[in-house]
Write a structure and sequence with these properties.
globular; methyltransferase activity; 9 strands; SAM-dependent_MTases_sf; 15% strand; transferase; alpha/beta; Rossmann fold; two-stranded parallel sheet; 7-stranded mixed beta sheet
Length: 316
């Protein structure tokens, strides 16, 4: 993977250590036009729309058109954008893991608010999909998606969790997420402002995900620039930075090169792949027990100890 410096459209994420407030505008339309969250989400949605209508689409998003202010297909670039390559990789890995892992019924998506995965992916029956994303963007898209007939697959349920909340963990649990059951997490598009805000995300996933759960997605490369500086173009430096960052939160991570993903594509699609990626694809396995697992075992250990004390007292 060739990593270059450049402008990447990712923006602040409200977490425990960062706070971003949008001043009220005169109208919702004006607010959207001036909202960097919304504009970045629109840009990504436009890429999915273009790829869906290419002669040999790598992915098809049947609902994305209703989210765009203009659906013109004129002057479309036929090159396969790295974002679409990453999207395909994440889509496939989510479904493959869901189908091959017993008891895996929880999916947590960390997105920009215009992500259509809850509707367009064929989730297994009884899947719970939790979408953590900016509330204003999500609310604006929800009605459009419903009007377009978008529905989550039969037997599944979808829950929205506002990324603006300072208590994402408790909100997730209140909506039915359980840290004692398997889950898979995907990060693509959720706004982050700096490395600290992404560390908050890693902390949240580490607290809630069971041991052995997967966390995958794509990171803006500028997050690495903050630590590796002029070595951002050095693949080995990026890998070491990624290893150290994820391991500090209990994850064993692997960086996925765009070329590696492209090799698994159909020949016609592979020819359209851009040689430059401005994000870092990753897949990580959680090596720690979740907070819920630890609490369950503490309770059980305490119960065993108390039973042992009672038996000892009866013998006396």
């Amino acid at each position: 993977m060739e990593v270059l410096r450049g402008r990447v459209h990712f923006f602040p994420f409200l977490t425990h250590s960062t706070y971003f407030s949008i001043r009220a505008r005169a109208s919702f339309k004006v607010q959207q036009e001036n909202d960097p969250f919304f504009q970045a989400a629109i840009e990504r949605a436009s890429l999915r729309f273009r790829e869906s209508h290419s002669p040999d689409p790598l992915l098809i998003d049947p609902y994305v058109g209703c989210l765009l202010p203009c659906n013109s297909l004129e002057d479309m670039d036929q090159e396969l954008h790295p974002y679409c390559l990453a999207t395909k990789f994440i889509d496939d890995k989510l479904l493959e893991t869901m189908q091959s892992t017993d008891g895996l019924k929880q999916v947590v998506l960390l997105t920009d608010g215009l992500d259509t995965r809850p509707y367009r992916l064929n989730w297994p029956t009884s899947t719970l999909v939790f979408d953590i994303c900016p509330d204003k963007v999500f609310r604006g898209a929800l009605q459009k998606l419903q009007d377009a007939g978008a529905k989550i697959p039969r037997g599944c349920m979808s829950f929205h969790v506002p990324s603006e909340s300072f208590d994402v963990e408790n909100i997730l649990c209140s909506k039915g997420f359980s840290g004692t059951r398997p889950s898979i997490w995907a990060f693509q598009g959720l706004p982050v402002v700096n490395l600290e805000s992404f560390k908050d995300i890693l902390s949240t996933v580490s607290n809630l995900a069971m041991k052995g759960c997967l966390f995958l997605g794509e990171l803006p490369v500028w997050l690495a620039e903050m630590d590796v500086g002029d070595h951002v173009g050095d693949l080995s430096a990026i890998k070491k930075w990624l290893d150290d960052l994820f391991m500090s939160y209990g994850f064993r991570v692997k960086m996925i090169e765009y070329g590696e993903v492209a090799q698994n594509l159909r020949q016609d699609s592979a020819k359209r792949v851009s040689e430059v990626g401005t994000s870092i694809l990753f897949i990580a396995e959680h090596l720690r027990f979740s907070d819920d697992q630890m609490e369950t075992w503490r309770t059980e250990f305490q119960r065993i100890e108390e039973e042992g004390d009672e038996e000892g007292f009866e013998e006396l």
